[in-house]
Amino acid sequence: MIRVALVDDHPVVRAGVRALLEGQEDLTVVGEASDARSAEQLVAALHPDVVLMDLNLGAGAGGAEVTARLRALAEPPYVLVLTTYDTEADIMSAIDAGASGYLLKDAPPEDLFRAIRGTARGETVLAPAVAARLVRRSGPTLTEREVELLGLLATGKSNRDMAKKLYVSEATVKSHLAHIYSKLEVDNRAAAVARAIEQRIIRPVS
Asked: H or E element: which one contains 132?
């Protein structure tokens, strides 16, 4: 029996996923959590095999950060991200945090079941759209720091603010921006942000 924990800040989503999983003989939901703190407490107490993790958990730590915390435990569960977000930044942050898989919430139930079973076996499981995005990362590719800088750029931060945030000099920020402009084939901040959102490298700022 594969023991699953659900981490999502929407009760209706958790209820829907629980109902789906309870129809499978080899899957059982052992607990639910809505934020970082309750997720860590749940995993420490119940030791699930797989954690289904949303990336947006409302206020506080996001799903990628919680994933990193869970994977750092002495007996870490496997983490399968289940989210609506499919930008390169979201995918890479989750995988870098230690997620074993990345599935989108519009996936058919059978894909979800297969993903959970594969994750429990230690396999890497990616939604077809996510896998396609990673395969398309050919040619000039933005570094993790450049994607991080684009995210800050999208919030309207100045070069000085970004330098302070990243603990680097303004000259380093300007150098990163020059590389970003070149790779995205743009010549200003606004165009860089627009292109990054268009290419689903970062999310639009809400």
From this structure: helix 128-135
One domain for residues 125 and 149: no
Query: Cβ–Cβ contacts within 10 Å for residue 86, how many?
Result: 17
Q: Which of 20, 108, 33 is CA-nearest to residue 77?
A: 33
Answer yes or no: is 67 within a domain.
yes
Q: Within a domain: residue 125?
A: yes
What pLDDT, on the 0 to 100 scale, is given for residue 139? 46
Q: Give average pLDDT by consecutive 10-residue segment, the chain, 206 residues.
A: 96 96 96 95 96 90 93 94 88 88 93 94 85 61 85 91 91 89 86 87 81
Q: How far are the Cα atoms of 3, 6, 52, 149 from residue 41, in angstroms, in the given order?
A: 16, 13, 15, 33
DSSP E strand boundaries for the chain: 2-7, 27-33, 50-53, 78-83, 101-104, 125-126
Domain that holds residue 181: 144-199
Q: How many domains, the chain?
A: 2
- 86 in the same domain as 48: yes
Place of tokens 């703190």: 37
Please state the pTM of the whole predicted model: 0.72
Question: Based on the domain organization, do 17 and 93 belong to the same domain?
Answer: yes
